[in-house]
Specification:
- There is one protein chain.
- The protein has about 300 residues and is of the alpha/beta class.
- The protein has 14 helices and nine strands.
- It is globular.
- The strands form two sheets. The protein has a six-stranded parallel beta sheet, with helices on both faces. A three-stranded mixed beta sheet has the order 7-8-9.
């Protein structure tokens, strides 16, 4: 049977394209039909509706933004959920609350389906280059069965144990990612306000021991004021909230993450939710301006 792919957003489209280019017999669907045209041109079948995906595909990958959308696509809570899911492997590659994923696994298994949790670490560029890192959780047999399918999208696939350990791992990694990019933005803001040459700032960051793939990309975006989206402010804010909620539920302190949450919320509130996460510098700039106004008074 074919492999299904549902959710052709910023991440989903390049992921699905990499599958097609690797020879995967793919059928795709997206709520916005125009998003599927690149897949059609690459050779994927574009389904007229979700039911067509489940009729033709034995394994269905979901790269969807929210829990509500996943429930709608699967028909969760509706009479036809069981018939749609039975006999299928569902691979959940988006980022949701861990406890949501655990409940979804239980319902899919009860309906006669199988479930793999497979969130990914990486943004649009790694997705385009097939360099995402997947974290896998689920029953050992089905996890090993789906690993070859993920290779065109992911340079690494790390098995994390039972559901929801993959999503918990993703949230842990996100703390490091969010804090790192926010720190880089604050460093760039400080350098700029001190009148330093920003090209030299980038050169020093890129040459230093803290340099990484993400720092090189984000320092370039900060230098050029290029906030075209790779990982949007609103998406990072959502992920930040998921981490904070998981931390509170477990009684874990997350002070650095909480500060970042405030900054991304401020950036979204300023109207920049659609921009790349490097645009968090806009919140820092707004705070600096507020300090200046206060000092002027």
């Amino acid at each position: 049977m074919k492999t299904g792919f549902i959710g052709l957003g910023v991440m989903g489209t390049p992921m699905a394209l990499n599958l097609v280019r690797a020879g995967t017999d793919l059928i795709v669907w997206n709520r916005s039909p125009e998003s599927a045209e690149a897949l059609r041109a690459a050779g994927a079948e574009v389904a007229a509706d979700v039911d067509a995906v489940f009729r033709k595909a034995g394994t269905v990958i979901l790269m969807l933004a929210t829990e509500a959308v996943i429930d709608t696509v699967l028909g969760r809570g509706a009479p036809d959920f069981g018939a749609r899911i039975a006999g299928h492997v569902i691979i959940h590659m988006g980022t949701t609350a861990p406890q949501y994923s655990k409940g979804l696994e239980e319902e899919i298994r009860s309906a006669g389906g199988r479930y793999v949790e497979a969130p990914v670490s990486g943004s649009r560029r790694p997705a385009e280059e097939g360099r995402l890192v997947a974290m896998l959780a689920g029953e050992a047999g089905i996890v090993e069965e789906v690993r070859p399918l993920l290779r065109p999208m992911c340079r690494e696939a790390v098995v994390c144990g039972a559901v929801p350990n993959a999503l918990l791992m993703k949230l842990a990694v996100n703390i490091f990612l969010i804090a790192s990019v926010t720190g880089l933005a604050e460093a760039a803001h400080f350098a700029g306000r001190q009148g330093l040459d920003m090209a030299l700032f980038k050169a020093v960051v890129d040459a230093g021991q803290m340099a990484s793939g993400i720092s090189r990309v984000k320092s370039g975006k900060l230098l050029e004021r290029d906030f075209s989206v790779q990982a949007a402010i609103s998406d990072v804010l959502k992920n930040n909230r998921l981490v904070a909620e998981a931390a509170r539920r477990a009684g874990i302190a997350s002070p650095l993450l909480d500060v970042c949450h405030g900054l991304y919320a401020e950036t979204e509130g300023l109207g920049f939710g659609h921009e790349d996460m490097a645009a968090v510098i806009r919140a820092l700039e707004a705070r600096t301006e507020a300090i200046g106004l206060s000092c002027g008074d």
